[in-house]
Structure formats: structure tokens, C-alpha cells
Amino acid sequence: MAGILEGQIVVVTGSGRGLGRAYALAMAAEGAKVVVNDRDREPAEAVAAEIAAAGGSATVCAEAVGTREAARELVATAVDQFGGIDVMITNAGADRRGPLLDLDDDDWEFTIRTHVFGSIMSSVEAAKVMRDQGRGGAIINVTSDAFYVGLATLAPYCVSKGGTYALMLVLAAELSPLGISVNAIAPPATRTEPMMAYAESLGAMGLTDAQLAEFRAAILEPEEVAPLAVYLASAEGRKLSGMVLGVTADGPSVLRGPSQGAPEPELEAALRRSFT
User: Whole-angstrom Cα distance, residue 45 to residue 61?
Assistant: First the structure.
């Protein structure tokens, strides 16, 4: 997949750490110019410096996603610094957890605003520019299978990821005719600060030591998930729209929501060939 994003302009929200950082680095390694976004400037600048040290191009937009103004600033940064936008990855998330009956309004509002409103505003503002550019583009919304599995103590997260999934389907229906592909990534348990904190909490929820060990052994590294984003940003990946990609023990997979049925075997086979 070397160089398959040469010259593409990519915005990755929440890319100062964790999965977002891995997406940004992977995009840059394939030749993309990257806008690194994080609400904290210091980690965003560290990622941009890492990209520059490797010979890539990156700039920083330190905005907390979730408002129209922040989304416009994100997109304006890409346009002003690099001349446009080709790919928007809405990865930014929020970590508010606890027993459902103990959550307060701010826990819900903060989480939903970051995940759902952040994805809505960033996707819509990016799509407006992509439409006007006339060269298409790709929007990648980061969701999770948590919305139809349901995880105790993660109610705001699960609800938010359900909203992100539904958003992706609607965006795909409306934007595909404009040449803008819209797909989602549903990462499995991945080694990020929120996930490791959640793993530490499972013992108190009744899991045995053996179950905890099994869960931890299945956790992937962010770098193992990042190729999915690269694929969806590529010319080949843009042929898809309205799909959810994930990673299983057998490799990359096409996932579906509960109402969509099983994925087409031919599509899954093509995806896996792309990673061999």
C-alpha cells in the first residue's frame, strides 16, 4: 500500500493520542498531508512533529470538536494550509463511564457532544468543501460494535456510537451520489488509555482472573487497526459506501449492523486481499 495517498489532504479528529494518532501516522506514511487535531495542543504538536521527522507534512488544529465553529476551523485549517480536503476521519471521543443510574447530565452531554455532534459537524463541513471542489472525497466515521452489544458502565459511549453508526448510513445515502464515500471503522478492543482503564475496571464487575487475562490478550495495538482507515481513504476503498470495517482474529472484516444481515463474501474476500 506504499504511497497510495500521495498528495491527499486528510483531517483526523482526536489524533493527539491512541487510535487517532495511529490513523494520522499511517495516513502520512502513505503520502497524505495531515491535519492533526486534538483539544490539547501539546500531544497534537508531538504527532505533527513525528510526521515531519519522518519526512511527511502535517499541521495542527487544537480545537475540541462538537460545535459548528470547531468543525469549520478544522476544515479551514486544511484548506488554508494545504489547499483543500480529501478525507475526514471523525475519531475524537470522550471517556465518561460509571453505573447508568449514577451518571449525571454532564456525563451524557459531554460524551454525546464529542462523539455524535463532533462527527456530525466535522463530516458536514468537510462534505461541503468536498462537494465544491468537485473531486469527491472520503468520510470515515469511527464507531464501535459496543452500540449493539451494550457494555455495562459505558452507557454514554454505547449510545454515542449508535448515533455515529446511524449518521454514517445517512451520510452515505446522501453523499455517495456526489462522489463522496462514507464508511465507518468499528475498532475492537485496542490498547488506548480509555480501553486499558476499562479493562482494569472489569475485575470489580465480577470477571475472573482467567476472563480478564483472555480479554487483555485479545487487545490489539492501534497500529493494527490503522490500515483500515488507509484502505477506506484509498481509491479502492472509496468504491465502498455505507460499510463498517473491523478487525477480527481472521483479519480485516466487513461488519454489519443488526438490521443489515451478513456481509457479501466477495466483498470480504476483496478486502482481505488488499491487506496481503
Answer: 9
Whole-angstrom distance, CA of residue 71 vs CA of residue 15: 15
**Residue tagged 495511529 (cell numbers):** 22
- Cβ-based neighbour number of residue 36 at 10 Å: 32
Q: What is the pLDDT of residues 202-227, one digit of tens each?
A: 556 666 667 666 666 666 788 888 99
Q: Give the separation between CA 130 and CA 182, rounded to whole angstroms.
A: 12
Q: What is the Cα–Cα distance from 105 to 111, expressed in whole angstroms? A: 10
Taking only the tens place, the pLDDT of each residue in 29-72 is 999 999 999 999 999 999 999 999 999 999 999 999 999 999 99
pLDDT tens, 156-165?
A: 999 999 999 9
Buried b vs exposed e over 46-61: b needs ≥16 C-beta within 10 Å?
bbbebbeeeebbbbbb
| Mean pLDDT calculated for residue range 20-27 | 97
Sequence-ordered alpha helix ranges (H) in the chain: 18-29, 41-53, 68-82, 105-112, 118-133, 146-149, 155-175, 193-201, 209-217, 222-233, 265-274
> Domain 9-190+221-274: what homologous superfamily?
NAD(P)-binding Rossmann-like Domain (3.40.50.720)
Q: What's the whole-model pTM score?
A: 0.88
Contacts of 33 (CB under 8 A, 6+ apart): 7, 8, 9, 10, 56, 57, 58, 81, 82
Q: Which amino acid is at 32?
A: A
pLDDT confidence of residue 1: 41
Catalytic center residues: 157
Query: How many Cα atoms sit within 13 Å of 250 on the Cβ side?
Result: 8
Three-class SS of 23-44: HHHHHHHCCCEEEEECCCHHHH
